[in-house]
Amino acid sequence: MLSYGTLKVFGGSSHPQFVEDLCGNLGIPPGKRQIVEFSNQNIMVRIQENVRGDDVYVVQTMAPPVNQHIIEALIMIDALKHASANRITAVLPYFPYARSDKKDQPRISIAARLMADLFTTAGASRVLAMNLHCAQIQGFLRIPSDQLIGGPVITQHLRHSDLSNAVLVASDIGEVKDVTHYANRLNLPIAIIDKRRFGNDEKPKARSIIGDVAGKDAILLDDEIASGATMIEAIDFLIKNGVRSVRCGAVHGVLTKDATARLSATPATEIVVCDTIPVPPEKRTEKLKVLTVAPIFSEAIRRIHVGKSISELFE
C-alpha cells in the first residue's frame, strides 16, 4: 500500500456540515484551522496543527459567495503546502466555473481551465470532484483527478418508488450520456427533450421530444439545477405532451434565488438533489429531498489514502 503520512481533512467555510459528516464517516476530527477576513476583504488562513509529511484533504464546495470560497480554498492549499504537507488533495464536490468549459462566444475565458490551473499552482497534488459538467474538465487538470458520480445515490432513492410505468427524461441532448447511466441501473427507457438556449439569459426553450412519454411517469434528470428555468420549461413541456406525473432531480442543487419555490409551484411531485452544495432551511420545501453523498466522498478519500481503486465504488 502507498503511504503519504497521516490522513487529515481540513474544511473551508462553504459547507461545514458536509465536512463534519465526511470526517465522522472517516472516524477523524476535522483539521484545526483559522480563517480571518480583514476589513479590506483580504483573507488569511492559518493551519493550527502540525501537517508536516501528512496526507491532507481540503474540502471546499463552490457555494455562494463562490469567488470568496475559491480564494479561501487556494490560500488554504498554499498554507498547507508551505507547512510541508506531503500530499494535498483538493476535494471540490461542486467544481467552480464548471459550465465555462469551452469558448462558445468570441473573446471569453475558458474559466474552468483557469480554475484547474489555479488549484495546481496553489499546490494541490490531485483533485477529487463529483459530476463535472463535462468530461474535458479532467483534461484541463495537469495533476491526477478523480470524478465521483452521484447517480447511484439518486438511483437508490428512486428504487424505493414504483417504476413500472416510468421513463427517464434527459433535459437536453447534452445529458443523454448521464441519463444512460441511470437507465442502465434501473432498466428504464429514455426520452430526450430538444432544448435550445439563446444568449446568456438562462431561459431555454423546449422544442420537441424524442421518445414515448404520453401516459408515463416521467423522471426528469440533469447534472445541476441552478435557476430552475431548464427544469420548469421541461416540466411544462412534458405535461403538455401527456405525461401522467413528473419528478425531477439533479446531483448539484445550486438552487439560486427562488428556484426551489418556483419548482415547488410546478406539477412536479418531487425534487431530488444531493448535498454537494448546502441547501439552507429557507430554500427547503416539502417537495425537496436532499440526499447525502458524504459517505461516497469519505470512502473515496479512504481509498486514495491507501492507494486503492476509485472506480470499484461504481461497479
Based on DSSP secondary structure assignment, what is the total number of beta strands? 14
CATH architecture of the largest domain: 3-Layer(aba) Sandwich
Tell me roughly what share of residues is in helical segments: 25-40%
Note the run of SSEs as H and E.
Answer: EHEEEHEHEHEHEHEEEHEHEEH
Short description:
The chain has 315 residues and is of the alpha/beta class.
Describe this structure in words.
It contains 9 helices and 14 strands. By secondary structure, it is α/β, with parallel strands linked by helices. It has 2 domains: 7-149 and 294-314, Rossmann fold (3-Layer(aba) Sandwich), CATH 3.40.50; 151-291, Rossmann fold, CATH 3.40.50.2020. Helix 1 crosses helix 9 (294-306). The chain is globular, with a radius of gyration of 20 Å.
Structure keywords:
single chain; 315 residues; alpha/beta; Rossmann fold; 2 domains; 14 strands
SSE blueprint and pairings:
Blueprint lengths: L6 E5 L4 H11 L6 E5 L5 E5 L7 E5 L6 H17 L4 E6 L18 H12 L3 E5 L5 H5 L4 E4 L2 H8 L7 E5 L5 H11 L3 E7 L8 E6 L6 E9 L3 H12 L4 E9 L5 H6 L6 E4 L13 E4 L2 H13 L9
Parallel strand pairs: 1-4, 4-5, 5-6, 6-7, 8-9, 8-11, 11-12, 12-13, 13-14
Antiparallel strand pairs: 2-3, 9-10
Helix pairs in contact: 1-9
